[in-house]
């Protein structure tokens, strides 16, 4: 009897165990998913395309203008005019042996020393008036109203313009300055300045001349009557003129007011 009871009890326990194993449970689906690696790598972000900056032009330093040095300028002019001295006056334009032609010959040589400086062209500016007008259009021609008060403008390399006095005297009106027979008549280049205690009293002028007189340097260009000394026949010359010709305008081969 006892054996039968133990057998039934054992059978009951086995059945209870089987019934418990068949009971369904809620499954955490999320827990069954594979966990990602840590740390999570962010997705690669593609940078927005950057617009290239507009290409900037190179900053080119322009050629510096020639330095104004009166001593060097005077020395250069002495060398240049030496080889141009003694040329007989000729009206033939191609010969460049009148006063404007002699000046243009100086310019030819001057370019060697100052290659960056612009100068009148011997084909386009072939007269004293056209040369004067060329400097005027560049803003470098100065009209002379009072020669003695404006004497400080006389420097080595100064381009002196004169009227045709006494017969063709300049009226003083600017509109006549470039008119033949009324304004500019003659021209030359200052190669040396004469001064007294810093005050300009005269100058030496290199220029082409008429009347069978060859090109050369003249020294009788004074600013005041007392400076002529015993040469009484010249003491009535206009101040800083060329003989009886009045000094009416000036420019400069190298502009001392715009160069360092």
Describe this structure in words.
This protein is of the alpha+beta class. The protein has one domain: endopeptidase fold (from Nostoc punctiforme) (Alpha-Beta Complex). The chain has 5 helices and 6 strands; from the N terminus they run H-H-H-H-H-E-E-E-E-E-E. A 6-stranded antiparallel beta sheet has the order 1-6-2-3-4-5. A hairpin with an 8-residue loop joins strand 4 (199-207) and strand 5 (216-222). Mean pLDDT is 77; it is low at 18-42 and 50-65.
In short:
With 260 residues, the protein is α+β, with helices and mostly antiparallel strands. The chain is 24% helix and 15% strand. The protein has a 6-stranded antiparallel β-sheet.
Explain the layout of strands and helices:
Layout: H1 2-21, H2 29-32, H3 70-82, H4 99-113, H5 128-137, E1 142-143, E2 158-162, E3 186-196, E4 199-207, E5 216-222, E6 247-252
Antiparallel strand pairs: 1-6, 2-3, 2-6, 3-4, 4-5
Helix pairs in contact: 3-4
Level-2 CATH architecture? Alpha-Beta Complex
CATH homologous superfamily label: endopeptidase domain like (from Nostoc punctiforme)
Name of the CATH first level: Alpha Beta
Class based on secondary structure composition and strand pairing: alpha+beta
Largest sheet: 6 strands, antiparallel
β-strand number = 6
Parts with pLDDT < 50 across at least 5 consecutive residues:
18-42, 50-65
Which strand order does the major sheet show?
Answer: 1-6-2-3-4-5
| Average predicted local confidence, pLDDT | 77
Overall morphology: elongated
The proportion of residues forming helix, as a percent range, comes to 10-25%
* Strand residues, percent: 15-25%
Secondary-structure element string: HHHHHEEEEEE
How many helical elements?
5
Within the CATH hierarchy, at the fold level, what is the topology?
endopeptidase fold (from Nostoc punctiforme)
Euclidean distance between termini CA atoms:
138 Å
């Amino acid at each position: 009897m006892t054996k039968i009871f133990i057998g039934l009890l054992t059978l009951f326990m086995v059945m209870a165990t089987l019934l418990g194993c068949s009971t369904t449970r809620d499954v955490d689906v999320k827990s069954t998913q594979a966990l990602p690696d840590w740390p999570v790598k962010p997705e690669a972000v593609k940078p927005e395309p950057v617009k290239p900056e507009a290409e900037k032009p190179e900053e080119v330093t322009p050629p510096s203008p020639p330095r104004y040095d009166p001593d060097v300028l005077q020395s250069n002019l002495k060398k240049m005019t030496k080889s141009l001295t003694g040329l007989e006056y000729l009206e033939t334009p191609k010969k460049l042996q009148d006063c404007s032609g002699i000046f243009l010959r100086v310019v030819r040589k001057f370019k060697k020393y100052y290659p960056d400086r612009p100068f009148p062209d011997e084909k386009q500016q072939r007269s004293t008036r056209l040369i004067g007008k060329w400097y005027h259009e560049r803003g470098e021609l100065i009209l002379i109203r009072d020669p003695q008060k404006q004497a400080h403008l006389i420097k080595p390399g100064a381009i002196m313009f004169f009227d045709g006095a006494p017969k063709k005297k300049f009226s003083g009106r600017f509109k006549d300055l470039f008119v033949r027979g009324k304004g500019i008549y003659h021209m030359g280049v200052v190669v040396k300045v004469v001064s007294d205690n810093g005050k300009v009293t005269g100058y030496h002028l290199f220029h082409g001349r008429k009347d069978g007189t060859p090109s050369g340097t003249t020294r009788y260009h004074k600013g005041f009557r007392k400076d002529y000394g015993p040469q009484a026949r010249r003491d009535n010359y206009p101040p800083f003129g060329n003989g009886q010709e009045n000094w009416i305008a000036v420019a400069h081969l190298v502009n001392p007011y715009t160069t360092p």
